[in-house]
Amino acid sequence: MTQQHLKHDYPQLPVDQLQPTPDWWQVRVDQISAAMARVKTGQAATIATSAAGHPIWSVAYGKPQTRPGQASWAIGSNSGDPSTYKTSAEGDPQVVVLVGGVHAAEPEATAGIINLSALLETGHDLRGTPRPQLVELAQKYRLIMLPCVNMDGRAVSPDHLRGATMDEFRLVSQGVWNDGTPVGYPACKKWWPLPLEKVAHPGGYHTADGYNIMHDANPADIRTAEARALLNLVAQEQADLVLHMHSHAAGGVILGAPLMAYPFHVVRTHQYKQRVHDALERAGLRPAAAHPFEQRTGIGLGAACMMASGALSPIFEQSAVDDWSFDESLETFYVTVETFLEYGLREPFSPRRPVMRGDLPEGDWSSVL
Fold first, then answer.
1. Could you give the CA distance from residue 301 to residue 93 in angstroms, rounded to a whole number?
2. Are 123 and 138 in contact (CB under 8 A)?
């Protein structure tokens, strides 16, 4: 057994003066598993086990519609015939995957998914609040949610970071070297895996083995059970939208498509940047400014999911700081999901033939291309 597997029992890093956590903010490892045990309308499943032995959960709503294709997306998309992979029939619901807790010190999406599951199960979230429009929209899709992909990181992270200083935010998220200094950015992305013998605490970005699952995206060398399970799920479900949900220190914002994305996805993601911004602004949730067309992201799970099924695979960041209350955080999650689901009924997230041909969505994009 190597040094990377010696220690899985890191404590939570202490953070002074965090705001009290409301009862409905259920993001601890045992709370996540308890919420999945309560699922009756949906189908909860363990899709992987973490290095530290924690279950990685998915919960699905809506009848499965996909049938095995005769080809993977990678080869089928080169055939000129998307039906070799994408086997859904006309009228079948699109498949939407919501991904939370990859960076587990960012628990906002985890709280959102647990509350959305409660909504779909009972008609009201854990606050006792109904949201019938969201429930109605969700029922028009095959909706699969992963509340916390990185349960190892969740186990060693606080329930939230509202009230933390930026230094504490970095320590809890990205880890602490043995000399007490923060690993920080970009150092946290210079190691694969993070050398655990050199750290006092790995932070919530990393698994118990020191891996940042968000960048476990090398097709030749997938290291974590968590990334492997997510990518298999996306491919097998023939996902149309994979929405990766993270948190940062500013208002809600959609990031640009991966640098290697299909032209269709680059433009469609840019459309959602503005759509989500406008929806959050109308709701009084103070989004960050929409990023310009040129802003893009690098290699990560967003790109890997796109390659697994041809899905639109954007990243959403929302606030993890105390300028946005717990209720505002949940509302930000709801409004963002609603925005995607509303527009997805008007236009497919990832129509495979235009995607594989390198076409663009309808409209004049000459001003940005």
1. 24
2. no
